[in-house]
Amino acid sequence: MREAYFDRIKHIVFRGGKIALELISSSDFWLKQDQSIITKADVEISKLAYRAIEDLLNTSDHILIDEENAESAEYFDHSHLENTPFIWVIDPIDGTRSFSNHMPNFGISIGLLKDLKPWLGVVYFPMLGELFYFDGEQSFFVQNAFTESEKRKLISPIDLPISHRSIFISNDSFFEKFDWNFSDCRVMNPLCAVLSLCWPTIGRGCGAFFGAHIWDFAGSWPIFLSAGLSLRSYQTGNEITQLDIELFARNSEDPWKLREFHILSSEKNFSLLKEKILPKNTTKLSTSVISPRPVS
After folding, report:
1. pLDDT tier at 36 (50, 70, 90 boundaries)?
2. What is the H or E stretch that residue 97 is in?
3. Which of 120, 125, 154, 270, by CA, is between 20 and 30 Å from 140?
């Protein structure tokens, strides 16, 4: 069963990648009610995913939480989730703004949760030719994915020291609410949540600041756990260990969005990175402390 489900996920991202590459030059996009962008590729990949697991969704053991399906909000219920063994979560195109500008930093993300915990996960970056996945036993990083020349590397625990060489990956709205202590580590915003969660698993960055939706982390969840990294609440330090609706913005028009900001990091680096994040309304450090040092 595990291998069969994993094969379905890989089929979806492989076919979805082809759709994305075919449509990236298209000008077909719209604004959703929240003013975020949706493209024809989002819609087509969403349809592809539904067709690929439609037989499973017709049973009581499976549900699909899809960013592009408004009906996903109906699953936001304790009893519904706890009584459904398998929860599929898909983001057809993460980094849609990048995609709509013909940039390569976008990904297709699919996670399969079993008994509310991460079980299988695949994240594919079609223009980069890079694939990250957890097959239920191990995680791998693949270059030249889905080609005869693909190269596969096992993802294992990583714990990079924080130094002048380090890069911390931020989300889109980070500098609206926070400043950053640039005394050593720098900040980068790739405009793609799944990229920010996958890259640190292979040493591209020491961690990430995260505040988004379930579909933004479900696919990468088991992958970054394999690398010894976790999502911990910026406020409390509590780690996300399973799907719990208490984590999300209940009584909201956007119920699958996390209530709190989180930091992706190793356990050792969490406190070091948290200290560098300076809420704008309480920032009292001098400019000399928070300004970047010249690069030699």
Report:
1. confident
2. helix 96-100
3. 270
Q: According to the model, what pLDDT value does residue 35 have?
A: 60
User: Residue 116: beta bridge partners?
Assistant: none
Give the pLDDT mean for 182-208. Answer: 96
Beta-carbon count within 10 A of 2 CB: 13
Three-state secondary structure call for residue 149: coil
CATH 3.40.190.80 fits 167-290, yes or no: yes
CATH architecture designation of domain 2-155: 2-Layer Sandwich (3.30)
The structure's pTM equals: 0.91
| C-alpha closest to that of 68 among 50, 87, 81 | 50
Residue 76's contacts (CB-CB under 8 Å, 6 or more residues apart) are 245, 248, 250, 255, 256
Domain ranges across the chain: 2-155, 167-290
Average pLDDT on 262-267 reads 97
